[in-house]
UniProtKB/TrEMBL annotation:
Gene Ontology MF term list: acyltransferase activity, transferring groups other than amino-acyl groups
Protein name, per record: N-acetyltransferase domain-containing protein
Organism: bioreactor metagenome
Domain N-acetyltransferase residue range list: 150-293
Any matching Pfam family: Acetyltransf_1
Gene3D superfamilies listed in its UniProt record: 3.40.630.30
Length: 293
């Protein structure tokens, strides 16, 4: 078995083709975006047998291990290598950031291979879940109105990145989003600028946002709306609901037959927003943690 670091000059096309051969939805969440980041590229490893890709793993900027293994090609050697790579990457991250962070992973509840690999290598299950919602677009979407004085528009391209980063950080109470990470979203192959929506007040201040996307999946057009956020100073006015409903309408007009969104089991307001716009819970993802102390 040969192990190599990710090569941005040719590996991505191979990964895309390989993912289509795997059973079920891929666990490599947002790889088209995160792989744009040089730091993540350096923490991405591929394993091949007889020249064929059989496994891939990377650790993102938030201490999360993501991996896929071809089920027919799995072995203790492959599984050990995937987890060992994740642990090594996280230890280097901790050394660089002078932190003591553990290594996390998020996998589908119906992904027995992933769960077994993680649990056999010392990952412990968390009570937190990632909730996945789906809205079938079988009726005409009626967009919700914005409050008086607000406008809805697509972002003004990369020139607005710094303002978008500030909005994201304020909305989620975190400093995790960086200009480089926001640009990686905007430079991903599947990025559609007309679906990168913001709401601004009468002074032009950005108040809320919703990033939507569209892809072909098994012969159908499928939409996604994630992330969605509102600045704390503009909450409780219906901005997120208006943005999400407009995103649904845009996606429907572009041919989407269903739309997916997600949130944490702890985010009750987002759960209520999704249900209020006709989304239904269809899947839960499990969070696991491997302690590195």
């Amino acid at each position: 078995m040969d192990a190599t670091l990710f090569d941005p000059t040719h590996d991505l096309d191979e990964i895309r083709t390989w993912q289509k051969t795997l059973p079920g939805p891929s666990s490599l969440i947002d790889i088209e975006e995160v792989i744009q980041l040089e730091a993540v590229q350096k923490r991405t490893r591929l394993w091949r047998q007889a020249g064929q890709l059989v496994a891939l793993a990377y650790v993102d900027n938030f201490n999360n291990l993501f991996f896929e293994i071809t089920p027919e090609k799995t072995s203790k050697e492959v599984e050990d290598a995937v987890v060992d790579w994740g642990v090594a990457c996280q230890k280097l991250l901790n050394e660089h950031q002078q932190s003591m962070a553990n290594l996390d992973a998020c996998v589908r509840a119906d992904a027995p291979l992933h769960l077994r690999v993680l649990q056999e290598h010392g990952f412990e299950t968390s009570a937190i879940r990632s909730l996945k919602y789906r809205r079938i677009l079988n009726t005409l979407i009626t967009p919700m109105p914005l409050p008086a004085g607000y406008t809805l528009r697509p972002v003004h391209g990369e020139a607005e990145v710094d303002a978008l980063v500030r909005l994201h950080r304020a909305a989620f109470g975190t400093d995790a989003m960086t200009a480089e990470e926001r640009l990686s979203i905007m430079r991903a192959p599947n990025y559609l600028p007309e679906l990168d929506l913001v709401a601004a007040d009468a002074n032009g201040t950005l108040a809320a946002f919703c990033i939507a996307s569209l892809e072909e999946l098994e012969g159908e057009r499928v939409g996604y709306t994630d992330p969605i956020g509102t600045h704390p100073g503009f909450q409780k006015q219906g901005l997120a609901k208006a943005l999400l409903s407009h995103a649904l309408l845009h996606l429907q007009q572009m041919g989407a037959t269903s739309v997916y969104t997600g949130t944490s089991s702890e985010n009750l307001s987002m759960q209520q927003l999704a249900k209020g716009l006709g989304f239904e819970l269809y899947r839960e993802n499990i969070w696991l943690t491997k302690r590195l102390d």
